Structures are given as C-alpha cells and as structure tokens.
Amino acid sequence: MKFVARIALSMTYAFAICIASLLSLIVPKRRPASGRLLAIGTFHNPNWFMAHIPPLANCGIDEIIVVGDGFMQQLPNVRMVVPNRFVAAIFSRSVAKLIWGFGCAIKYKPDLYMGYAIFPAATWALLLSRLFGRPCCFQLTSGKLELEGGGNRAENRLLASLKTPSPLVERLAFTLTRQFDLMIVRGSQAEDYVRKLGYIGPVATITGSVTIPETVQGPGERDIDLIYVARLTRRKRPDRYIEIVKRVAQEIPGVKAVVVGDGPEYEPVRQQVIAAGLQDNVELLGLRHDVPDLVARSRLFVLTSRWEGLSIALLEAMSGAVVPVASDVGDLADVVKNGVTGYLYDEDDLDSFTKTIVDLLSNEELQTTLAMSARQAVIDKSGIQAVTQQWHDVLREYVAMRDNSRSV
User: Fold this and answer.
1) CA 175, CA 118: separation in Å to the nearest integer?
2) CATH, residue 198
3) Which has the higher per-residue pLDDT, 272 or 46?
4) Based on the domain organization, do 155 and 282 belong to the same domain?
5) What is the mean pLDDT of residues 28-43?
6) Which of 232, 322, 336, 360 has the fewest Cβ atoms surrounding its Cβ within 10 A?
C-alpha cells in the first residue's frame, strides 16, 4: 500500500503542477464579478464546519458554494453541494468532488476557489481555478503536518498510507504549494514554514472562529475537573491523557475527568481506563453535540496531541474560561502563553502536565486569573466577529464583495 500511495500521490501532484502551469499561460485572468467563492473540503464534524464556514459566508461575499462529502448545516449565503453517492462509489469521493466542483464552476462562475488541505481539496481547487482563469486559495489547516514528508502523518487515508516520509512526494507537494495565489495558515509557525518553502505570495493568519459564551461560571461552580475533546486517533494521543489522569488521581483521588470524542482509539482508551482502575474517575462520552455545555462545566482543558495546527476545541474551551494545559505543538503557542493564559509542555513531559494540573486544581484563584485571560485572548483573536472581519479584509482583492460585511 505504501508503494501504491507514493505512485498515486506523485503522479497526481506532478499532473496538477504541469496542468496548472500550462493553464496559467493560456487562460486569461478574469476580474471578480460574481461575488461567489467555491470551497472544496472534507468536513469531519459539524463543529469544524461551523468554525470555518460562517465567517466566510458573512464577510461580504454573496455566496459560498461548499463541495463536501455530506450536508452539514443550513446557513445563509451557503450552498452545500454533495456529490452523488453512486458516482463517489465508482470514482472515489475524492474524484467525485473534482467532478462536482467542475459542474459548480460552470454553473456559478465563482470569483475565487479555495481548498481545505493539500490533498485532494486544494489540488482540485487549483486545477479548477486555472481552468477558469480565477485565483486560488490554499487553507493549510494542519500546518506543516500536511506537507512535511509528503504528508505521511496526516489523517487523509492516502497520505497516511505513505507510512514513512517520502522525499519525492514532499518535493512535489512543496512545488504545488508555490502555485497558489493566496495562503491561509492558522499561526505564526505555519507562516514561517511556508515562507521557508519558497512561497512568495500573500499569506494571512486566520484561525477558525469561536462563538463566545456571554457568561461563564467560576471554577467552584464546575463539576468536571479535566476535559479532553478530540477525535480519538494516535495523532491526538488520548493514551497520554489517561496516563496523566492516573497520575493526578494519585494526588487527588476524587478527580473527575471526561473524554469527548470517537475514533479508532476509542476501544484502546476504554481498555486503558479499566486496566488503570479509573472507572470512577474517567467517563468516556463518545461523540457529543453538547460540547459547549460540557466545556462550561469544566475547569481544565487537557490536550496531549503529538501534532496540531491550532485546535478549535482548545479555542472553544478557552473562550468558555477553561484553562488549557497542552502539548507545545503546532501554533498553540500563539494563544497559550505559559502562566498567562495556560500552560504548554513538551508532549512527553507527563510529570509537568501532572504537577501543573494538581497545582491548578488546588488553587481556584489562579484558575480564575488564567481562565479570564484565556477567554479574552480568544475573543481578540478568534471570536467570530474578529475572524469575519479578517476574512473581509483579506478577500476584497479576490472577490466582488460588498463594502460592508453582513452582521454576525
């Protein structure tokens, strides 16, 4: 499978680079006229969709056409387009999105094409944009994780099938990245990374958006000590979280922790809880639709990921005045400042995780100070109104936009 993945990705990227370069020479560039944006992506859950699409839909464009794998939620100014299941079964979901994207390009004539993640969404968006003489935006959703080693650590099945880094696929991915007209990243480290790749176009740092709760409770009014919210995969390392809870329970026997999420590591985590005798301390809640309510009841948000871009779940927790204690990965340091808005540690430093959590749970005054600082940091950087304005400022050059964005 590794060999097949390398061949498939190498051929796809090489083809995309050649065709996009050729089309750039022969297809004339067109001025913005329709006020529409065509976005292609895989939206794993409604929370992720709601974090990214509403600010785009409300930033002043007339309509955003979203080509995805399934219907998420009805929103003003958003047209959801889902490829036919029969076609997807024959050609794969990836190719089906390219076919449907082509149909939408003809029908709606968007001003700007956008892809979430390099493969396949951004690759397809680039080909379509060049075919129709429009600019293309690449949303680098997971930072260097998507490109480094060819993407072998990404969650996309074909990329993950690489297993180990592929220098050839990596070089082709870098070359493809340099073709885009606009790059959106989640944080400063990701921006530095794409500049080192030789990308010379405009780069904007825009996080996913967060709906800020109007009111929050103090630590003493919350009945969940630790909350973990993530898709349960090896990349997210939920096993580390359970090990940390085990250590904290040795100091605070009555500690209450929850795990919110589902995924391939759910059963191993359940077995780990049983083996550690933590059934009275840890509750596995699975996939939930009341995450904001659970966050509102929590004191500390623990993130033990091996890799991240900028976690939406972490931002949502901080907006609800929950103190983050997380791995120092990706662009988390842009919002989590040690001793100010939370704490970051080396992903393997479980001793520091444990000590900090014990200290925080024993000090409500410190919890409150950090929690309110964390909340304000997210309001300023990732509140939905702030993100909507950021998109408005960035896209004015590419889309026929109204002078004023819609109210959020």
Assistant:
1) 12
2) 3.40.50.2000
3) 272
4) no
5) 93
6) 360
